[in-house]
């Protein structure tokens, strides 16, 4: 940002007219400015006083009007910066994130929207609603423990009724399908599925990140579609990450066996427990790689686990869980971070812990997080 803009913001800060977003930028600039400068010495303070006195009692006849205005502007900038800096020294704060707790963001929770076959929407979450709907021969219940359960009351063939369960940013939810398959939805995710499975396959489609514990049925394979990827299983535990703003779709196998197909090229490969299969719109293959099971399951088990990830990837995850937008003032941060963090903490605490790990700083405003090196 040019100096004249900083000058304007400093004036507005002093006058009490600065906007929250402008103050956040100013405080971010202040952090960088102070990191490059020592504390003022007594001599510098006295020099500042002298400059202030000269500014108030200028030798008018020696200065041309344009030079006088320029001098006043420069001295005013010096005074405000000095006052701003001295106030911070006299009232130290260890962390801008902690300072602005009144604009902190709470962790996500158990909430979702269920869309029934007739288009009706049902808001789910605390408190539990008990019976939510009846879809043909299937009873839909929300339990006291906060999960949605589909229970088939009669084994009769009927028209397929597609339901959709979706979590917002800042939400997660659990689902039990009519065949007994257990499903966990991460934040900003969805699953479309029939109220009761009919025919030779059990087919669902997902967006975002979803974990499955598929009920075994060798007569009816379980098929999951996620963007350009299709996963085929009989009974197994696996995770799929397929957010629309991520480059890759990744299926990670925890137990059992699955086959992963690239729907664009029809390339198909099997993976074993401890392996992942990745596809993307830019790649015709199915790429197999090793996974860390604990890291894959961390979101489901109540924590974040980051392993050698950059700040951009980490903030994408946090923005979904805390339902907050993120602004980066630089796209050149090359540092890598690793660590385990509870999903139940306030955003400010999580960011404060990240700051301790490397050269990155966060400022929370009322609407977003600003990230600087």
Automatic annotation (TrEMBL):
User: What Pfam families does this protein map onto?
Assistant: FecR, FecR_C
Q: Which Gene3D superfamilies match?
A: 2.60.120.1440, 3.55.50.30
Q: Which residues form the Protein FecR C-terminal domain?
A: 303-371
MF GO annotations: sigma factor antagonist activity
Q: Where are the transmembrane segments?
A: 66-85
UniProt keyword Secreted present: no
Q: Which top-rank group of organisms is this from?
A: Bacteria
Query: Which keywords fit this entry according to its UniProt record?
Result: Membrane, Transmembrane, Transmembrane helix
Q: Where is the FecR protein domain?
A: 164-259
UniProt entry tagged with the keyword Transcription regulation:
no
Q: Which InterPro entries match?
A: FecR (IPR006860), FecR_C (IPR032508), Ferrdict_sens_TM (IPR012373)
Q: Would you tell me the protein name for this molecule?
A: FecR protein
Q: Please tell me the species this chain comes from.
A: Pedobacter terrae
């Amino acid at each position: 940002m040019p100096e004249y803009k900083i000058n304007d913001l400093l004036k507005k800060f002093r006058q009490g007219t600065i906007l929250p977003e402008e103050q956040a930028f100013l405080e971010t600039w202040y952090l960088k400015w102070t990191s490059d400068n020592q504390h003022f010495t007594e001599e510098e303070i006295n020099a500042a006083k002298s400059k202030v006195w000269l500014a108030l009692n200028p030798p008018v006849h020696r200065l041309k009007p344009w030079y006088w205005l320029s001098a006043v502007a420069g001295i005013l900038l010096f005074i405000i910066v000095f006052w701003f800096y001295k106030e911070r020294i006299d009232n130290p704060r260890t962390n801008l994130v902690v300072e602005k707790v009144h604009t902190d963001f709470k962790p996500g929770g158990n909430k979702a929207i269920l869309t029934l076959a007739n288009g009706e929407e049902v808001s789910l979450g605390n408190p539990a609603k008990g019976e939510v709907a009846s879809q043909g021969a299937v009873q839909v219940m929300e339990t006291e423990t906060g999960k949605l359960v589909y229970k088939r009351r009669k084994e009769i063939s009927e028209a397929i009724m597609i339901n959709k369960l979706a979590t917002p940013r800042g939400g997660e939810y659990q689902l039990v399908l009519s065949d007994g398959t257990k499903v966990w939805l991460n934040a900003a995710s969805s699953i479309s599925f029939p109220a009761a499975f009919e025919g030779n396959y059990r087919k669902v489609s997902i967006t975002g990140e979803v974990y499955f514990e598929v009920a075994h049925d060798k007569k009816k394979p379980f098929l999951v579609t996620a963007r350009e990827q299709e996963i085929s299983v009989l009974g197994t535990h696996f995770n799929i990450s397929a957010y629309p703003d991520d480059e890759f779709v990744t299926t990670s196998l925890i137990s059992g066996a699955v086959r992963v197909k690239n729907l664009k090229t029809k390339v198909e490969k099997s993976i074993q427990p401890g392996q992942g299969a990745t596809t993307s719109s830019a790649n015709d293959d199915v790429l197999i790689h090793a996974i860390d099971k604990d890291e894959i399951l961390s979101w489901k088990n109540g924590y974040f686990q980051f392993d050698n990830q950059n700040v951009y990837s980490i903030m994408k995850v946090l923005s979904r869980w805390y339902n907050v937008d993120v602004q980066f003032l630089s796209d050149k941060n090359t540092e890598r971070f690793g660590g385990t963090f509870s999903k139940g903490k306030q955003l400010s605490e999580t960011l404060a812990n990240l700051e301790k790990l490397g050269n990155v700083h966060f400022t929370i405003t009322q609407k977003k997080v600003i990230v600087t090196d």
